[in-house]
């Protein structure tokens, strides 16, 4: 059972001018899309309006559909159907699930208490061996346990832990070389910082060790924060683009239409 909850960064929000800059759609057109029902209304706090990544994804979807030859009336019909038709809403629910507003429960990441949930996978399988070899997991009483409590808490809440294990391994393996290079750049930058502060080939004196230790720890924390923020923004942008591509493809294909869905279902049953 989850012992505690750690809040994660909430969904990004933009004012109108920021949304226009990021999306490449003018503020005037954004207002027009809202009036025509193409764009969901923003969150309002007093006289201020706030948009999020779901609105950004909608704008990118609108742009793609316009480039494919659909006019604003067609697009308005698509989005009206999304809001009213259960069939289309089910298909496109992934859009809001990924970039839409999230509940307080979704925003929280469970943290595994000491000695809590094991992965529940065969310790002899390839995935388990890789997790242990990479230093991500360990064997505890013959069971595979992730070392990072936050990761363990996330995996523990899924009914299919192997699905998340595959994701962990893929991310680790695909980024390992880049992370090693990034760490090497970090050390070189730290060496430059040391030289700038103390001079080349300087041997630190005992009274300088406290300052040196503080600089190293501060620099490491700053590096972690910059990298984490940069990665978060890059992932956010990639997910918004992927979801808008998916939405535009579904809408323009016509496969979302109830008649098309019923026909597809009939073919499966034959």
What this model shows, in words?
The chain has helices spanning 16-23, 27-36, 53-67, 72-84, 86-99, 104-107, 126-133, 149-156, 161-198, 209-253, 258-269, and strands spanning 4-7, 13-14, 43-45, 48-52, 108-111, 137-140, 143-146. The chain has 270 residues and is mainly alpha-helical. It has a domain at 1-111 and 203-261: Multidrug-efflux Transporter Regulator, Chain: A, Domain 2, CATH 1.10.1660. Strands 2-4-3 form a 3-stranded antiparallel beta sheet. Strands 1-5 form a two-stranded antiparallel sheet. The longest helix has 45 residues, at 209-253.
Question: What does the oligomeric state look like here?
Answer: single chain
CATH architecture of the domain at 1-111 and 203-261: Orthogonal Bundle
| Main sheet makeup | 3 strands, antiparallel
Tell me how many strands there are.
7
Q: Which regions contain 5 or more consecutive residues with pLDDT less than 50?
A: 1-10, 109-113
How would you describe the shape?
A: extended
By DSSP (H or I, 4+ residues per run), the number of helices equals 11
Tell me the span between the first and last alpha carbons: 45 Å
What is the CATH topology assignment of the domain at 1-111 and 203-261? Multidrug-efflux Transporter Regulator, Chain: A, Domain 2
Arithmetic mean of pLDDT: 78
- Strand residue percentage: 5-15%
Could you spell the SSE succession in H and E letters? Answer: EEHHEEHHHHEHEEHHHH
- Radius of gyration, Cα only, in angstroms? 25 Å
Estimate the helix proportion, in percent.
Answer: 55-70%
Q: What spatial order of strands do you see in the largest sheet?
A: 2-4-3
Structural class: mainly alpha
CATH class of the domain at 1-111 and 203-261: Mainly Alpha
């Amino acid at each position: 059972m989850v012992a505690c909850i750690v809040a994660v960064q909430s969904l990004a929000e933009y004012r109108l001018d920021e949304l226009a800059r990021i999306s490449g759609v003018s503020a005037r057109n954004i207002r027009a899309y809202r009036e025509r029902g193409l764009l969901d209304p923003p969150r309002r706090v007093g006289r201020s309006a706030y948009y999020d990544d779901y609105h950004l994804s909608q704008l990118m979807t609108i742009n793609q559909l316009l480039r494919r030859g659909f006019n604003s009336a067609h697009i308005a019909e698509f989005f009206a159907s999304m809001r009213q038709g259960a069939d289309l809403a089910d298909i496109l629910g992934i859009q809001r699930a990924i970039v839409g507003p999230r509940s307080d429960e979704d925003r929280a990441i469970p943290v595994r208490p000491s000695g809590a949930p094991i992965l529940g996978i065969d310790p002899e399988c390839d995935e388990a061996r890789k997790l242990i070899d990479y230093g991500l997991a360990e064997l505890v009483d013959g069971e595979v346990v992730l070392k990072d409590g936050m990761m363990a808490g996330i995996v523990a809440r899924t009914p299919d832990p192997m699905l998340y294990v595959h994701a962990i391994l893929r991310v680790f393996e695909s980024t390992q070389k880049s992370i090693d290079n990034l760490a090497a750049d970090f050390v070189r930058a730290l060496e430059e910082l040391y030289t700038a502060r103390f001079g080349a080939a300087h041997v630190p004196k005992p009274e300088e060790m406290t300052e040196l230790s503080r600089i190293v720890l501060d620099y490491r924390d700053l590096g972690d924060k910059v990298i984490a923020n940069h990665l978060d923004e890059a992932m956010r942008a990639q997910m918004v683009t992927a979801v808008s591509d998916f939405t535009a493809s579904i809408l323009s294909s016509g496969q979302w239409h109830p008649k098309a869905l019923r026909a597809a279902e009939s073919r499966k049953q034959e």
